[in-house]
UniProtKB/TrEMBL annotation:
Location of the AB hydrolase-1 domain: 82-319
PANTHER family the UniProt entry points to: ALPHA_BETA-HYDROLASES SUPERFAMILY PROTEIN, HYDROLASE
Protein name: AB hydrolase-1 domain-containing protein
Cited SUPFAM superfamilies: alpha/beta-Hydrolases (SSF53474)
Length: 344
C-alpha cells in the first residue's frame, strides 16, 4: 500500500510511510484568513496542510451569526467507509496533524482535521458568549451534522482525547469508533486556574504562548532529545504551534476556557460504548503510560498499542506507527464483520 521513506522531520531518525510528491509539495497559496506569519513556515508538510485549511459556516445557539469554522477537508468524500476525523490537543490546531494526515489519505481514508472552538483558525472576531466545554461540544456537533453526517472514527490526542470521550458519550450516534492517543483524561479540568481573577488569567495566557514555555514543553514532549535539538525544534514548532495564537481573539477564548473549569471526563470513561484503540508513547514524560493501562481497564471495549522510543505526541514523532495501528484497528473490525456475515 505504502512504501517507507525517511521524512525531513526535525529528528533525522524519524521515519514514516511514503507521502506522495503531490501531498508534500506546496501548491497554490495560503488562505487569506491565516496570519501573515504562515509565510515564514519552512516545514513543507505544515505548509501544504495550511494551504488546505477551509472555513465553513456553522450555526450554533450561542452565536447570532454562523461561526466560520476552520478545518482541513478530505480530497474525496467516500460513501462506503466512515470517515476519520482528527481532533487536536490543548491550545493547538489542525496543523498538529501535518505528518499523519497525508499518510491517512494515502491509506485510503476519508480524512478530516477539525479545529476545536477557541483554538485553531476559526473566525471568532464576533465575541462569543463562551468557549467552555458545552460550547465546544455543541459547535463540533453542529459541524458534524452539517458536513460529515455519518458515524466517524474520532481520533483525539492528549486533551483531544477528553474532547473525544465527552463527545462520544453525549452524541453516540455520531461516533463509530474512538482512537485515543496519550490521553489526557484523568485531569480534573483546569483546576485552580478556574478560580483565578480574570486579569491574572490573561497574564497566564500571555505566558502560555511565550517561546520559553513552548521550549520547555517541547523538551518534555519528545523522547530522548537534547536541549539543543529541542531548541531547534522549538524554532520550527513556534512557527506552527503558535500561529493560531496570533489572532486577536485567542486570549479571550483561552481565558474563557481556563476559568470555565475545562474538561473533566473521569466519570464519563466507563460510559463509553464505542470500540476504542488506545495508542501511547512508552516514553511519555507528560502523562505516564501507566494511565494507558488504567484507561484500558476502565473502557468496556478497548485495545492498547504502545510505541517504543516515543514521547507524548506519537502522531508527530511516529506518524507511520500511528497510521499503521489505525489501519489495523479498522481492518480488524471489518474482517470480524465479514466473518460473521460469511458464517450466516
Amino acid at each position: 500500500m505504502m512504501g517507507a521513506l525517511s521524512l525531513a522531520y526535525p529528528f533525522s531518525r524519524v521515519t514514516a510511510t511514503k507521502v506522495s510528491e503531490a501531498q508534500a509539495k506546496p501548491n497554490n497559496g495560503f488562505p487569506s484568513f491565516l496570519p501573515k506569519q504562515v509565510h515564514t513556515i519552512k516545514d513543507p508538510f505544515a505548509r501544504n496542510l495550511a494551504m488546505r485549511i477551509h472555513r465553513l459556516p456553522v450555526s450554533v445557539k450561542f452565536s447570532e451569526n454562523p461561526i466560520m469554522s476552520s478545518c482541513v477537508k478530505p480530497l474525496m468524500i467516500q460513501n462506503k467507509a466512515n470517515p476519520v476525523v482528527l481532533l487536536h490537543g490543548f491550545d493547538s490546531s489542525c496543523l498538529e496533524w501535518r505528518y499523519t494526515f497525508p499518510l491517512l489519505e494515502e491509506a485510503g481514508f476519508e480524512t478530516w482535521a477539525f479545529d476545536i472552538l477557541g483554538w485553531g483558525f476559526s473566525d471568532l472576531a464576533e465575541k462569543l458568549t463562551s468557549c467552555d466545554v458545552v460550547s465546544k461540544r455543541e459547535h463540533f456537533y453542529e459541524f458534524w451534522k452539517s458536513y460529515i453526517k455519518r458515524p466517524m472514527i474520532l481520533v483525539g490526542p492528549s486533551l483531544g482525547s477528553a474532547v473525544a470521550i465527552d463527545f462520544a458519550v453525549n452524541y453516540p450516534e455520531a461516533v463509530e469508533k474512538l482512537v485515543l492517543i496519550d490521553a489526557s483524561v484523568y485531569t480534573e479540568g483546569t483546576g485552580n486556574l478556574a478560580t483565578l481573577p480574570r486579569l491574572i488569567a490573561y497574564a497566564g495566557a500571555y505566558v502560555l504562548k511565550s517561546v520559553p514555555l513552548r521550549l520547555y514543553a517541547n523538551y518534555l514532549t519528545f523522547n530522548d532529545i537534547s536541549f539543543s535539538t529541542s531548541l531547534d525544534w522549538t524554532n520550527v514548532s513556534s512557527q506552527i504551534g503558535r500561529l493560531h495564537c496570533l489572532f486577536p481573539w485567542w486570549e479571550d477564548a483561552t481565558v474563557d476556557f481556563m476559568i470555565s473549569g475545562g474538561y473533566n471526563v473521569v466519570s464519563q470513561i466507563r460510559k463509553v460504548k464505542q470500540k476504542t484503540l488506545i495508542i501511547w508513547g512508552e516514553n511519555d514524560r507528560i502523562i505516564s503510560n501507566k494511565l494507558a493501562v488504567q484507561l484500558h481497564c476502565e473502557l468496556s471495549d478497548a485495545i492498547i498499542r504502545q510505541i517504543p522510543d516515543c514521547g507524548h505526541l506519537p502522531h508527530v514523532e511516529r506518524p507511520a506507527s500511528v497510521v499503521k495501528f489505525i489501519i489495523e484497528f479498522v481492518q480488524r473490525e471489518t474482517k470480524l464483520v465479514n466473518q460473521c456475515v460469511s458464517a450466516e
